[in-house]
Amino acid sequence: MIFKFLKLNITVEDNDFNELYPTKIKRLAARHWTPVAVAKFAAEFLVDKPHKKVLDIGSGVGKFCLVGAASTKGIFYGVEQRESLIKLSKKIADKYDVTNVEFIHSNINKINFSDYEAFYFYNSFYENIDSSCVIDKTILPERELFYSYSKYVKEQLEKTPIGTRLATYWSNWEEIPDSFKLEYAACGGVLVFWQKIS
Q: What residues make up the domain containing 188?
């Protein structure tokens, strides 16, 4: 019903969407997973034409991709380094027949951004700096990774063509090249929409 509602543009509350996940994953939702309304808003900005290929940089449990895929005509790709979260994301997509989504088990620094047309970033690297709400113990926080991942993303975004769209949520803008112009902000300034202009 959740994905049917999203396709019909009927409001879905986070508490309802998060019921798709196990209890330990639900507990992390407020801190780590994109709220449904934010995901929908960001996806609608990123998918400005059918079949646009959107990459979620650090997709976690796949919530942004699943919401975006159900509520737009884009094709969503989530890259995530935790295999358990990739398996969970795929399981939900398969169970609810969300076909325009794919989850990739990989580190972001192995991903070539030229394979995608738009990007979403919910500060997935910040867990290397703030360990007050860890996702699990499989990945040990390492401050240097925050900087190296942010640098890699910035370099990859710099290579994208003019017109590339980017949405960031709770970002400190470390990963955004000067060639991207801030289009507008929402949600009290924490959701920001960008477009490459040079």
A: 2-196
3-state secondary structure 15-38: HHHHHHCCHHHHCCHHHHCCCHHH
Residue 10: count other Cβ atoms within 10 Å of its Cβ.
Answer: 10
Q: Per-10-residue mean pLDDT for the chain, 198 residues long?
A: 94 95 86 92 98 97 98 98 96 97 97 98 81 73 88 98 98 95 96 98
Quote the number of domains for the chain: 1
**CATH number, residue 36:** 3.40.50.150
Distance CA 41, CA 72 (A): 10
CB of 134 within 8 A of CB of 141? yes
Is pTM beyond 0.90? Reply is yes
